[in-house]
Structures
1.
Amino acid sequence: MSDTIFAPATAAGRAAVAVVRVSGPEAETAVRRLAAGLPEPRRATLQRLYDAEGVEIDRALVLWFPGPASYTGEDCAEFHLHGGAAVVGALIAALSVMGLRLAEPGEFTRRAFEHGKLDLAQAEGVADLVDAETEAQRRQALEQLGGRLSQVQARWREALTEALAMFEAAVDFPDEEVPADVAGRARPVLEQLIGELEAAAADAERGERVREGYRIALVGAPNAGKSTLLNALADREAAIVTATPGTTRDIIEVPMVLGGYKVLLADTAGLRDTDNEIEAEGVRRARAWATSADLRLWLVDGSAEGRAEVPRELQPGDLCILTKRDLPENEAGWKAVEEAAERRLPVMAVTARGPNDVAWLKTTLTERVIDALAGAAPPAATRLRHRDLLLEAAERLRNALAQDEALELAAEDVRLAARALDRITGRIDPEAVLGKIFATFCIGK
Ligand SMILES: Nc1nc2c(c(=O)[nH]1)N(C=O)[C@@H](CNc1ccc(C(=O)N[C@@H](CCC(=O)O)C(=O)O)cc1)CN2
C-alpha cells in the first residue's frame, strides 16, 4: 500500500472550485506526471493536467509544498480544479492509477501530528474548526489550534517536572546534598496545581457546551403549549401541534444560534401519568433530557383551571413561562406564579402568537446562554477527554500528597499525573525529568 495519500479537501457537490490534496513521498512524481513540471514551491501555477493516456483532465491551479515546510511535514501538492464531479473523479482516477491511495479520515492532520507540526490538542482544534458553525465555536477552536491548551498544559507539566525532580532527587540520592524537606517544598506546588487542574476541568464543561450546544428543555403538562412555543422560537413548524394532549412523544431537538452560541432547544412529551406505553416512554425520555439540560423552561397554560404540577426536574435558575397570555388568566396561572415565587424562579407570561413576546423570550434565553458560556477568556480545555485527564492528574496528585513519608510512592503518583497531562497533548518526555534533576540540584558532578 502506498505511503502517499490523496483526497478531495473540499466537499462534494456543485462548486466553482474543488481542491484535491496529495501528501507523501510520491507527491512530486504525481505532479510531474500530471502537469508539465513542478511549479515553484508554494506558488499557485496554472497548468494543464493530463492522465496516463495523455487525455486532458482540466486546466488547474497547482501548488507544490516541499516537505518538511508543509501542512503534513511531508511533500504535499494541491490541485485546485474546476468543481465538477467528473473533473474531480478524473483526477482521482489518475492518482489511483499511479498507485497513490485515498486518505483515511483525518489522515493529513494525523501525519501533521506525527511529524510534530501539531500536538494532539491542536489537531483536535483543527477538527473543531472544520466543524464550527457558530462564532463561539470558531473562536474556541482557533484558540485550541493556536496552542492555548497546549501552552497551559506545558506550564502545568513544567511545574510537575520540578516537583518530580525534587522527589526523585530525595529518593535516588538520599546521601547527597539534597534539601531535606523536599516533600515539604513540593507540597505547595502540588496543592496549587491541583486547584488549577480542577478549575480547568470544571471550565471544560463550558468548552463542551460551546462545541455541542447549550441545552434548553421545554417541560410541563400536556397541552401547556410547548410545541407551539418551540415552533415560534425556531420560526418553523418543527413540532406537530394539535389540541390533543400527549401529541409530542419523542424529543424534538431544534438547533438554533443565540448570541453566536449553538443552542439545542428541545420539545418534550408532556409530563403526566399514563397507561399508554409509548407515551410513558416519551415521558421518561423527557425527564431524562430535562435533567441533563442546562436550562429548563417550565411551561404552564396560564388560562387553564386547576393547578399545574411542578416538574421534579426543575433546578434553581430555571424559568417559569406562563403561556397563552392572549387568553384570560386563570387559576393555573396564579398558582404557578406562587410556586415559582417560592422557588425564586423568574416568571414570564407570553403568547406564541405575539411576535414581541417570542422576541423577548429569545432575548432572555440569549442572555442566559451568554452568561453561562462567555467567560473572560475561552476555556482552555474543551472536551470530555481533556476533563477526564485533568481530573485524573489532580487525583494522582492528591494521592501523592497523601503518601506522607513514602517518597517513592509519592514520586510514582506524580509521574502518573504527568503521564495523564502528557496524554492531553499526546507527547511523553521522560528525558525532561532527568534534565531537571541535574539542572536544579547539581548532583553527581
Ligand atoms: N489551500 C489550502 N488552504 C488551507 C489549508 C490547506 O492545506 N490548503 N489548510 C490546511 O488545513 C489551512 C491552512 N493551514 C496550513 C497550515 C500550515 C501550512 C504549511 O505549509 N506549513 C508549513 C510552512 C509554514 C510557513 O511557511 O509559514 C510548516 O508548518 O512548516 C499550510 C496550511 C486552511 N487553508
2.
Amino acid sequence: MEALWAAGGLLLALALLAFLLYCCYVRYIHAKYDHIPGAPRESFLFGHLPIIWRMVRKQEFTPDLLLQWAEKYGPVIRMNAFHRVSVLIVSPEGVKEFLMSPQHPKDPIVYGTLFRLFGERFLGNGLVTVCNHEHWHKQRRIMDPAFSRSYLIGLMDTFNEKAEELMEKLEEKADGKTEFSMLSMMSRVTMDIIGKVAFGLELNSLSDDQTPLPNAVTKVMEGLNKARVPFMRFIPGKQKFVKEVRESVRLLRRVAKECIDRRREAIQNGKEATMDILTQILKGAALEETRDDENILDNFITFFVAGHETSANQMTFTVMALGQHPEILERAQAEVDEVLGAKRDVDYEDLGKLTYLSQVVLCLFGALAWLSSSSSRSRTKAGAESGKEILKESLRLYPPVSGTLRRLEKDDVINGIRIPGNTTVFLNTYVMGRMEKFFKDPLTFDPDRFSKDAPKPYYCYFPFSLGPRSCIGQVFAQVSRGLEQHLASKHWASSGCAEHGWWWAPGATLMPCALALFCSEGRSPPCPWHVSQMLSQEQPWYLQGGAAGCTPSNCPGSACLNPNPLMEISVNIPLPAKVKHTGMCRGSWDHPMASTDTIKAGKTSAGGGHKPELAQRR
Ligand code: HEM
C-alpha cells in the first residue's frame, strides 16, 4: 500500500514538474513574441482563446474580432494560444511577401487538421491541403491544363445546359408563394456542374435533393464546421452526428473509387478520355513511380469540397448584395441586355464582353440571355461600362474563404517588426477588405471602386488568394456571375435588416445563413432577426419587416399596410399559434424588387452566426 502511495506521489510530483516546465516554456514563448503588438491576453495559458471561445458560444462572427484587432494593433498582430503564437498580417508588403513567394509553405499544423475528419481520411494530401512544395507542384502542374481556355470552351455546352436547368427550377418556384432556400439551390447547381465537368458524373441534385452524393457532401461540410469544436468527436450526444459524417466521408471515397475505376477501364478499353479534372488526376497518378490511389481519392474530394460551397456562397452573397442595391442591379441588367441581346446560349466570346461580370466563364448566361431577352428594360451603356466590378466588390465584402495561412520558417522582418521563425502567419482578405486604410468607406457596397480608372487594390484584396497557391478553380467560380443576372432580370432579391444586417455562418467557408427566400414581388421583407425574436417571445408579436427597433408596443399599426398571410409559409419553423398577426411595414425595404428572407440561421444546420453590430457597418 505504501509503495502505491509513493508511486502516486511520485507521479503527481512528476506531473507538477512537467506542468511547471511547460509554464516556463510558455513564459519563454511570451518573451519571444511579446514585442509584437496584440490584444492583452485573457489568460496566461490559454492566451486569446477565451475571447474566441466566448464569441463562438454566442455565435458571434470571429473574423470581425480580427478586424477590430487589425485596426487597433496592426499591421502585424500577435495571437496567443497555449505555447503557440500566430501572427496576423494586414499590410500589402506582408501579403506580397507571404503569398507571392513559394518560399513560405502552407502551414502543416493547420492544414494537417484537414487530412482526416473525425478520424476518416478526408482531404489528405489533396491540392488544397498538401504542404510539401514538391508534391504540390507536381500535382498542380498536371491539373492546370484542366482549367485552360481551350478546356473551358469545351465546357460551354454543359454550362448552358445546367444554367437552363437551374432557370427552369427557379421559374417553377417563382409563383410568389413557394419558399425555397436560395443557398441550397446554388449549392446543388454548383455540385451538379462540378460533378459533370470535373468527373463526368450526372448527379442531378438540382432535380432530386435525395441523391446520396450531394447529401454526403453537405453532411461533410457540416462536419467540417463542427469539427472546430474541441474534442467534438468525443462529446456524448454528438456521436450520431459524428458517425453520419464519417459515413459520408466513406461514401465520398467509395463513389470516387468507383468513378475512377470506371474511367480507368474505359481508357484501357481504348475509349477516348474526356479532358476533365479526373483525367488530369489520373494522368498525374500515372507519372508517379508508385501509384498512390489514396491521393487520387483525396483530390476527388478536394475538388468537390473546394469547388462547390465556395461558389454557391459567393453567388448567394452577391444576390443578397444586389437585392440591397437595386440601382446596381439595374446596371447589371443593362449590360446583359446590351451584350447578349436575344441569344439563348452564350458563347465563350460573349463572356469577355460582359465586363460588368468580370470575364464570365460559365454559361448560366445561357438562361440569362433568354431571360433578359424577354425583359423590356431599356438598354443603356451605363451597365456595360461599369459592370465587371460587382462581383469583385461582392468578394471584397463577403469572401467565402476569408484567408490563408503560411508557415514562416526563418526569422523575418515585416513592416519593421521582427517575426521569429516557426510561426504561423495568417493573411486575411475579409479583414483587409474592410479596412478604411485600404478601401474608402469600406462597408459600403460600391462596385465602382473596382472600375478601370480606380486605383488598384494591390495586395490587400485576395479572395482567391494570390501567387502560386492561388485558387485553381477561379474561372469555374465565375459561374456565379451569370446567376445574378438571372436574378436581376426576374426580380428575385434578398434583403437584410437595417438593424441586424445579414447573418453569417462562420465555418469552413463564410456562408450566408438567412437564405431561404422566395420570389414575392412587391412584398416587404421581414428581418430574420425579428422573426427569430418573435419565435422566442412569450407574447404575441406584430412583425414589422426590416424596421429597426420594432416591438409589439411601437408597431405603428397604420404603417403595417401589408398584413401578410404568407408570412407563415415563409418561416421555416412552424409559427406558434400565439403569433396573432404578421403584418409588415412598408419601410425602408419597400422597393419594387422586395422579397422575403426567412429564418434558417441559428436554428438549422447552417450553424447560425449572427452579429447585430454588423448591420451598422454594412
Ligand atoms: C467563389 C468561389 C471560390 C473562391 C472564393 C475560392 C477561393 C480559394 C482560395 C482563397 C484558395 C486558397 C486556399 C488556401 O490558401 O488555403 C483556393 C484554393 C483552391 N481552390 Fe478555390 N475558390 C473558389 C472556387 C473554386 C472552384 C470552383 C474550384 C474547383 C473547381 C476550386 C478549387 C480550388 C483548389 C483545388 C485550390 C487549391 C489550389 C492550390 O493550392 O494549388 N476553387 N480557392
